[in-house]
From TrEMBL:
Belongs to the eukaryotic RecA-like protein family. Pfam families: Rad51 (PF08423). SUPFAM superfamilies: P-loop containing nucleoside triphosphate hydrolases, Rad51 N-terminal domain-like. The gene is radA. This is DNA repair and recombination protein RadA. Keywords: ATP-binding, DNA damage, DNA recombination, DNA-binding, Nucleotide-binding. One of its GO terms (biological process) is DNA recombination. One of its GO terms (molecular function) is ATP-dependent DNA damage sensor activity. The keyword DNA damage applies. Involved in DNA repair and in homologous recombination. Binds and assemble on single-stranded DNA to form a nucleoprotein filament. Hydrolyzes ATP in a ssDNA-dependent manner and promotes DNA strand exchange between homologous DNA molecules. It comes from Promethearchaeum syntrophicum. Signal peptide: none annotated.
Length: 358
C-alpha cells in the first residue's frame, strides 16, 4: 500500500520518508519512532502517530488467528543438493541466515554461489532477482562469479551486470549501506542481500571490554534493520560471520562472535567446519544447523570448488563461451579487375546494314 493511502500523512512527510527508504505503509508500520525522529522535518510526536496509524491500516494493532497467517517464503538453492535438503529447500527469504566458521571454511564461497543462483528462475531454485553485495573484507571476486555462472549455464557478463557491489570501509559506512539497501531492493528488484562479513569491521573498531556495550547497540540496530527489510520486501539475507576460539576445559572450540545479539537476531544459524586437521587437507566441508525456527539440528556434507558450492569436487561447465560468441565474419576477397579491355561497339556500327559487308 502506498504512503498516500494513509489518511493522516502529509505530502511533505511522504517525500521525507521516501528519501529515507520508507516507500510504503508496510515499511512505515515496521519502523521505530526514534529512527523517524532523526529525519529532519518529522517530530517525535508525528513519527509515533504515523507509525501507529500505519499499524492500524496493516492490521497490526490486533491479534490474528494463526489459521489466517500466510507464509510466502521462497527458497534459494545453495548449489548443493545435500545442503538444500537440510534447509528444506535452500536459503529462506523473509528471514536472516547467518553462516559462521573458521577461515577457508566456505563462507565467502557460499556468498558467491548464492549471488549467481539468486538470478536463476524460481522454478529452477532461484529468486529471479538482482543481488546486493555488502563487502567488508574486500573478498569479492569477479572471476569466481564468472566461473560459477558458466557452471550453471549462464552468460557471465549478464550475471555480473545484475550484482550490485558496495566496498565498505567502516562500521558507520556499513550501517549506511544497510539503510540504503531497502531502496535498492525496490529500484533494482534485488532478492538477496549479502553482508560478508558482519563483524569484521566492528572487531577492529570496538576494541576492549569498555567498548562492548556501544558495539552491541550498533550491531543490534543493523540486525533489526536487515530483519525488517527482509520481511518487508521478502528478500533473502545472508550474513557471514567470523569465529573466536574458546577454551572448554582442556579442549578448544570455535564459536561465532557477536554474542547474544547475533544469536537471537538471526533466524537460521549455520556452522561450517573443515575436514581433517588443516583447511587444506580436503575440500570437503560440513554444514551444521545450530539454530532454526522450523528445522531440526542436522549435518550435510558439501565441497568448495573453484566454481562455488557443490556436491562433488569435479565441476562441469554448462556454458561454453567459445560457442556462445558468434565467429567473426570473414571478409570476402576482392575480385581482381581483368586487364583485358572489352570490345566497344559503336552505335553507328550497330545500326549499319549487314548486307554492306557482303
Amino acid at each position: 500500500m502506498e504512503l498516500a493511502e494513509l489518511s493522516s500523512i502529509k505530502p511533505r512527510q511522504i517525500k521525507l520518508l521516501q528519501e529515507n527508504g520508507i516507500t510504503d505503509i508496510k515499511a512505515l508500520s515496521m519502523s521505530v519512532p526514534g529512527d523517524l525522529e532523526e529525519i529532519e522535518g518529522i517530530s517525535g510526536k508525528a513519527s509515533k502517530k504515523l507509525i501507529w496509524d500505519a499499524r492500524d491500516v496493516m492490521g497490526m494493532s490486533s491479534f490474528k488467528q494463526v489459521s489466517e497467517i500466510v507464509e510466502n517464503y521462497d527458497f534459494l538453492t545453495t548449489g548443493s543438493k545435500n545442503f538444500d535438503e537440510i534447509l528444506n529447500g535452500g536459503v529462506s527469504t523473509g528471514r536472516l541466515t547467518e553462516v559462521f566458521g573458521a577461515f577457508k571454511s566456505g563462507k565467502t564461497n557460499l556468498a558467491h554461489t548464492l549471488a549467481v543462483t539468486c538470478q536463476m528462475p524460481i522454478n529452477e531454485g532461484g529468486l529471479d532477482g538482482a543481488v546486493l553485495y555488502i563487502d567488508t573484507e574486500n573478498t569479492f571476486s569477479k572471476s569466481k562469479i564468472e566461473r560459477i555462472a558458466r557452471r550453471f549455464g549462464f552468460n557471465p557478463q549478464k550475471i555480473l551486470g545484475n550484482i550490485y557491489h558496495a566496498r565498505i570501509y567502516s562500521t558507520d559506512h556499513q550501517f549506511q549501506m544497510i539503510r540504503a539497501a531497502e531502496q535498492a531492493c525496490i529500484d533494482k528488484n534485488a532478492r538477496l542481500i549479502v553482508v560478508d562479513s558482519l563483524m569484521a569491521l566492528m572487531r577492529s573498531e570496538y576494541v576492549g571490554i569498555g567498548m562492548l556495550a556501544a558495539r552491541q547497540q550498533v550491531l543490534n540496530k543493523m540486525i533489526h534493520e536487515l530483519s525488517r527489510i527482509a520481511e518487508t520486501h521478502n528478500v533473502a539475507v545472508l550474513l557471514t560471520n567470523q569465529v573466536a576460539t574458546f577454551m572448554k576445559g582442556t579442549y578448544s572450540a570455535n564459536d561465532a562472535i557477536g554474542g547474544n545479539i547475533v544469536a537471537h537476531g538471526c533466524h537460521f544459524r549455520i556452522q561450517f567446519k573443515t575436514k581433517g586437521f588443516s583447511a587444506n587437507t580436503s575440500l570437503e566441508r560440513s554444514a551444521i544447523i545450530v539454530d532454526a525456527p522450523d528445522l531440526p539440528p542436522e549435518v550435510a556434507s558439501f565441497f568448495i570448488t573453484e566454481a562455488g558450492i557443490s556436491d562433488s569436487e569435479k565441476v562441469e561447465y554448462l556454458f561454453d563461451e567459445e560457442k556462445a560468441t558468434p565467429p567473426a565474419k570473414k571478409k570476402s576477397p576482392k575480385k581482381k579487375k581483368s586487364s583485358k579491355k572489352k570490345a566497344v561497339v559503336s552505335k553507328s556500327a550497330e545500326l549499319s546494314d549487314p548486307l554492306e559487308s557482303l
